[in-house]
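Example 9 (inverse folding). The structure is encoded as follows.
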């Protein structure tokens, strides 16, 4: 019987396993379906990772490498080329591996760290023919950065999330011509720094409030039609632009990989598409924790690391100290301007100094106040100059504020006049 089984060897799984080892667990197993540890970071060869955590700018593989190095100093067991097929509510983990075959392992605790996958053409139903040359941006990134293939020469990118923006620059650097980045919303879904460094610096036009309305081509993509959309995101006739291209890259959203989570009967939050979690990242199934992109989509890996360290430490506490008494719990609800919060529930009695609260806003806001209220009472407020749905927000709620709260905490956004 393992103390902890970690499912997924990306940054979330690595940080969670290291933290659990540091906190005293000794029988830890990481199960990874890929041929190496590191997760999505292995294909992110651009820099910009680790600014918060290591206070230096690293590439994705370098960032993952640091944690793989830390893991070497522990006795954590790793099974590569092994896919977890099922997790039961009794914490039995069914897996199949290249060398080990089908195995069922038992664990006192589990960390779900399976990351997320990309939305495909089918998920957003783009009309047109079905030629070759349509890739998700992450798949194209893997081809270019890991397998050594350039997927096309004249490219249109749909979606201005970070993966799309990064790939606009990457394809340009590899000699392709990126004709346009097209975004259905009136604002970009990516980090501001990526818009500047990946589009503006290479004169790649960004068409906001536009979408792809037709794909043409028989064997290979030949043309992509882009139209402007109205307030209800419906294409406006007469605004069509035709791009002669051989490739369409899709960067239209990420979906947390929660098939195993659902199957285990763990409660899912429809707003995050991840498990509903407590302040220590424990799910509705005691002893099962979730962190990283499987819990909610992150834009910065540093936050994935910090969150997963919390989850790993909490798993160790669960195993070594046993299940703690429930205590009073607060539900966190979304107020005006907030689309989700993680965690969704807090037990103030289990918060040491402060509770990390992550959330996303549902519209672009100028100078704003983030308000936290309990009943009619405002218990905390934080100022921001700018808020956007593409950038995850983080606030810290000190324990003493939580002790004074009752039943619910509401997080909302109030735009304020700029001075
Ligand atoms: C293109 C791109 C660019 C990015 N750029 C930046 C950046 O510049 N700066 C930054 O800080 N962050 C960036 N990020 C974000 C950061 O990389 C992610 O937030 C982080 O990698 C998420 O870590 P994770 O461990 O949760 O998921 P992942 O890295 O996806 O790891 C999940 C792992 O779980 C494994 N797995 C899944 N299911 C199973 C199963 N059933 N059995 C076994 N194994 C399984 C997968 O194979 C994978 O290795 C970027 C992300 C992408 C995709």
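The amino acid assigned to each position is listed next.
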């Amino acid at each position: 019987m393992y103390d902890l089984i970690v499912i997924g060897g990306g940054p979330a799984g690595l940080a969670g396993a290291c933290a659990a080892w540091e906190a005293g667990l000794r029988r830890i197993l990481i199960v990874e379906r890929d041929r190496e540890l590191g997760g999505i970071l292995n294909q992110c060869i651009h820099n910009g990772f680790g600014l918060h955590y290591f206070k230096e700018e690293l590439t994705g593989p370098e960032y993952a490498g640091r944690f793989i190095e830390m893991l070497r100093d522990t006795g954590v067991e790793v099974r590569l080329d092994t896919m977890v097929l099922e997790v039961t509510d009794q914490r039995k983990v069914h897996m199949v591996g290249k060398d080990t075959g089908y195995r069922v392992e038992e664990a006192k605790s589990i960390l779900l760290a399976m990351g997320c996958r990309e939305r495909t053409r089918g998920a957003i139903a783009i009309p047109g023919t079905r030629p070759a040359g349509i890739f998700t941006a992450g798949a194209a990134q893997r081809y270019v950065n890991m397998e050594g293939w350039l997927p096309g020469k004249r490219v249109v990118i749909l979606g201005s999330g970070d993966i799309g923006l990064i790939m606009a620059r990457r394809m340009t650097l590899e000699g392709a011509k990126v004709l346009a980045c097209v975004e259905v919303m009136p604002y970009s879904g990516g980090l501001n720094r990526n818009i500047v460094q990946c589009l503006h610096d290479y004169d790649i036009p960004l068409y906001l409030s536009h979408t792809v309305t037709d794909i043409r081509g028989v064997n290979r993509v030949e043309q992509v039609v882009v139209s402007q959309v109205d307030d209800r995101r419906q294409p406006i006739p007469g605004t069509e632009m035709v791009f002669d291209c051989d490739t369409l890259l899709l960067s239209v959203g990420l979906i947390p990989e929660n098939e195993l989570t659902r199957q285990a009967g763990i409660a899912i939050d429809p707003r995050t598409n991840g498990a509903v979690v407590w302040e220590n990242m424990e799910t509705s199934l005691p002893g099962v924790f979730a962190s990283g992109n499987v819990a909610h989509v992150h834009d910065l890996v540093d936050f994935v690391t910090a969150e997963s360290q919390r989850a790993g430490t909490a798993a160790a506490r669960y195993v070594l100290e046993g299940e703690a008494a429930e205590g009073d719990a607060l539900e966190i609800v979304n107020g005006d301007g907030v689309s989700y919060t993680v965690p969704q529930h807090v037990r103030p009695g289990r918060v040491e100094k402060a509770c990390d609260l992550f959330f996303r806003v549902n519209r672009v806001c100028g100078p704003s106040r983030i308000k936290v209220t309990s009943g009619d009472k405002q218990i905390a407020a934080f100022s921001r100059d700018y808020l956007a749905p593409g950038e995850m927000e983080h606030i810290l709620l000190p324990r003493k504020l939580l002790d004074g709260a009752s039943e619910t905490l509401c997080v909302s956004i109030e735009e304020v006049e700029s001075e």
